[in-house]
Design goal:
With 197 residues, this protein is mainly α. It contains 8 helices and no strands. The longest helix is centred in the middle third of the chain and has 60 residues.
Length: 197
């Protein structure tokens, strides 16, 4: 019997506590209290207050095609002219800077493309030289009589081919090294990785 009484008292107390919390939440704010929503509505209705407060950016009014400045704009007395003129001049300078940057990036892209083409050409030439050497060596070693009659001439041709192949391999390695250096220099110059690789 005591348990039922204790459970009943605990239930009554918790119900009373929840009811008082609900009443506290549902009471309307008094004249001295105002909700944040009321304040926001008041600010939006009054156009004079919008000019007095600084521009605040949120997800709804964040510019997508322009840059944000954390410094702010020059005042008319500090600028020596109309603020609109400074905006136009700054916009023109920014556009000029961006155009110069794009031109420099395009120049780097052209240089890198030319170097890659040079590497491709040197690699193909090396491949052709190696195949030609393999064919001549196969033909020479296939005929033992020819090898015995022309051994001195073959030794000279063999040495020439090996020297040409070594030179072409060095040229390919040098061209690849130069490309790597150019890519690193382009990255240091601020060229995006998508244009460098």
């Amino acid at each position: 019997m005591k348990r039922i009484t204790l459970i009943g008292i605990a239930l009554a107390l918790s119900t009373a506590l929840l009811a008082s919390m609900a009443v506290a939440q549902s009471t309307a704010p008094g004249p001295s209290q105002s909700s944040l929503g009321d304040y926001a509505r008041k600010i939006r209705k009054d156009p004079g207050t919008a000019k007095a407060r600084p521009k605040v950016f949120d997800n709804d009014n964040l510019p997508t095609d322009d840059k944000l400045s954390v410094i702010g704009e020059k005042s008319a007395d500090n600028a020596g002219g109309a603020p609109g003129d400074d905006k136009n001049a700054a916009g023109t300078n920014a556009d000029d800077d961006q155009a110069k940057k794009q031109a420099a990036w395009k120049s780097w892209q052209t240089k890198l493309g030319a170097q890659k083409d040079l590497i491709d050409l040197a690699t193909r030439e090396l491949d052709v030289l190696q195949r030609e050497y393999q064919l001549r060596a196969a033909a020479m070693y296939a005929d033992a009589g020819n090898r015995m009659r022309n051994s001195a001439e073959w030794d000279k041709q063999d040495a020439d081919y090996k020297a040409k192949i070594a030179d072409k391999q060095k040229a390919v390695e040098d061209a690849k090294s130069k490309l790597t250096d150019m890519q690193e220099e382009a990255r240091k110059d601020g060229v995006p990785s998508a244009m460098v690789d």
